[in-house]
Amino acid sequence: MSTDLQAKIDRLSRPEAYPEDSPTVEVVTTHMSCVFLTAQHAYKLKKPVRYPFLDFSTIEARHRDCVEEVRLNRRLAPGVYLRVVPLAAGPTGRLTLGGEGRLVDWLVQMRRLPKELMLDQLIHRGEVTDDDVRRFTRTLSDFYRQACAERLGPADYRYRLAQDIRQHALELSEPAYGLPTDLATGTAAVLLAVLEKDRRLFDRRVRDRKILEGHGDLRPEHICIGPLPLFIDCLEFNRGFRIVDPADELAYLALECEYAAAPRIGELVLDTYAAATGDRPPARVVHFHKACRALLRAKLSIWHLKDHEAGETARWGRRARRYLDLAGEYCGRL
C-alpha cells in the first residue's frame, strides 16, 4: 500500500501530470492526505489510512469522501471546490489525472487561493483590520443562523463533551510523549467538574437549539479575507466532529488567534457574532470550549511525533506544551 501511494505522490509531484501549465508543483503532506499545489489549483489525494474516526482504506471510501468534501465546502467556499477528478493508469501503467484507463484513485480539485490573503498570514504580518474581522464573522453568523438545529438531548451533548475531554487527557498522558501528565489530567478534571457543576449552562445551549452542523475546523489558515470571505477545509470525514455549538467553533478560532499573539481578533469575533445573532454565550461556556480545544490541539500537535523525523521532535513538543499551558490558563478563568 505504501509503495502504491508513493508512486502516486511521485507522479503527481511533477508539473507534466497536470493539464494546466505550471512550472512547479508544491507538495503539502498531512496525516490523512497529500495536497499538490500548481500555479492555479490545489489537488488533494486522500491517503489509504484508517483511524478510529475515519476509514480511507478503499478507493470507494476515498471517492465518497472526496464527493462529501466538495459538497460540504461549497457551503462556505463557493467557487473554490471545483470537482472530483479520477486518477487512472494507462496500458503501460502511467498514471494520468483525469485520463482513461484503470481507475486507481480520486482527487479533489480546488481553486488555489492567494496565500497572502489567508488570515494566518495576515496575522503574521500584522495586517488584519477590525473591518476584516467583522466581515468574515458576519458571513459565519449568517451561516449559523441558516443552519438547522441538531436533534440532540442535553445529556447526550454533555456526554460527548466529557468523552472528548477524557480521550484527550488519556492520549496526552502517554509517557512516550514526555509531557507533564499532571497538567493534562488536572485540566481534564477541572473541565469535567465544570461540565457537571454548570450543566444547566450547557443544557440551555441545547434547548435553545444552538447545536448545529458547522465547519468543524475553524482556524486562521482556513479563512481567506478576500472581497467575499471564504472558509475552506471543513472536517468532511466525520459528521460528528461538525456537530457543534457556534460558541465552540468561535472559541476555537479565538484560541488559535491567541496562540498567534492576536487575542483581539477572537474578542472581536465573539462580539460581532453576538451583535449579528443576538446570541451571547456565557463567558464560562466560551472559556470551557477554549480549554477543550486547547487540549485537542495539544493532542494533534504531539501526534506529529509519529510522522516526523527526530529533528522536529522538540518543535512539536514545544507546540503541544504551549497548548497545554493555554488550556490550564483557560481553566484558571473557570
> N-to-C SSE series?
HEEEEEHEEEHHHHHEEEEHHHH
Q: How big a fraction of the residues is strand? A: 5-15%
- Which bin fits the share of residues in helices? 40-55%
- Shape descriptor reads globular
Give a description of the structure.
The protein has 334 residues and is α+β, with helices and mostly antiparallel strands. It is 49% helix and 15% strand. It has helices spanning 2-12, 59-73, 119-125, 130-146, 154-172, 181-197, 199-207, 246-259, 263-277, 283-303, 313-332; strands at 26-29, 33-37, 41-46, 50-51, 54-55, 81-89, 95-97, 102-111, 212-213, 223-224, 230-231, 243-244. The strands form 4 sheets. A 6-stranded antiparallel sheet has the order 1-2-3-8-6-7, sandwiched between helices. Strand 4 (50-51) and strand 5 (54-55) form a beta hairpin. Helix 4 packs across helix 9 and helix 8 runs antiparallel to helix 9. The relative contact order is 0.11. The model has no long low-confidence stretch (mean pLDDT 94).
Write a brief structural summary.
This protein is an alpha+beta fold and 334 residues long.
Helices, strands, pairings?
Layout: H1 2-12, E1 26-29, E2 33-37, E3 41-46, E4 50-51, E5 54-55, H2 59-73, E6 81-89, E7 95-97, E8 102-111, H3 119-125, H4 130-146, H5 154-172, H6 181-197, H7 199-207, E9 212-213, E10 223-224, E11 230-231, E12 243-244, H8 246-259, H9 263-277, H10 283-303, H11 313-332
Antiparallel strand pairs: 1-2, 2-3, 3-8, 4-5, 6-7, 6-8, 9-12, 10-11
Helix pairs in contact: 4-9, 5-6, 5-7, 5-10, 6-10, 6-11, 8-9, 8-10, 10-11
